[in-house]
Structure formats: structure tokens, C-alpha cells
Model the fold of this input.
Amino acid sequence: MPRMQIALRSMTAQDASFCALIACDSEIGSRYGFEPERMADSLRSAIASGGELFVAEAEGGIVGFAWGEPKGAFASAPYLRLIAVSESSRGSGVGSALLAEFESRTRWVSRDWCLLVSDFNKKAQAFYEQHGYRRVGALPDFARAGIAEILMVKPHGPLS
Done:
């Protein structure tokens, strides 16, 4: 799929319902039982509490979003909680743009970025590895019984 021309901006509370639908329409959304209303409420709550949430837009519509917590990993390192890209936009560079934006917005926090990715989500694991993240451990049954969460870290060196 060709690269998409996208614009990135901070998520607003009005964006939450549409973004929730994108998250629910994914393998992780299905496996974890995401529900649109609950996800939208979580996104609005995260916006209100100062989380780093932003959207990718193309041709006037939202095609993906990212949710990061600047000090969400061990109360000291940026934690990428979720990237979700609409099914029709996957493979077009939206996820890479969202990941780069997360890293840019949180570069000041610490020397490493952290995230968890489910053991069944091989495409996401490969995506993060292509972007410099490496596996450093696993948390069996962390979020759901029978699923391990893979802890991935990307160092970026001295604070900038």
C-alpha cells in the first residue's frame, strides 16, 4: 500500500468515540473484548488527565491514533499504551508516523521508551522491532489469562 499523506494533531474529547471504534476493530480489540463506549470513556479520561493522545488524519478523517503515558512505565519512562490504525489504512505508514510522534513528544522524559505487545500479535512485534524496539521480557497472564505480554524497550540515549 502506498504511503499516505497524513496530519497529526492532539486528540480531543470529541474524537474519542471514533477512535474507540478503530481500536475495537482490531485483533487486539477483539481478543481483549474492547467495547466502544468503555474505550471512548477511557480515551476521554486519559485526555483529561494529561496523557499523550493524538490522531492521524488523512483526507479529512481520522485514520489512526496513539495513546502514550509520558511516565507510565515504572513511573519514569514513556509508555506507549496503544496504537490503532483503521483497517483500510494499515500498511500505509500511519502506524510509523504515530510511533515517531509518540517518541518525539516524550523524548524529554527518559532514555528509553517502553511498550507491551501481546504474544499473539506477531505483526505488531515485527513492526516495533523494525523501529528499534527489542524484547526484554514477558509477563505471562498479565492482562488476560493465557496471553503473555511482551515487554519491548527502545533506548534513545541521553535526554535531549
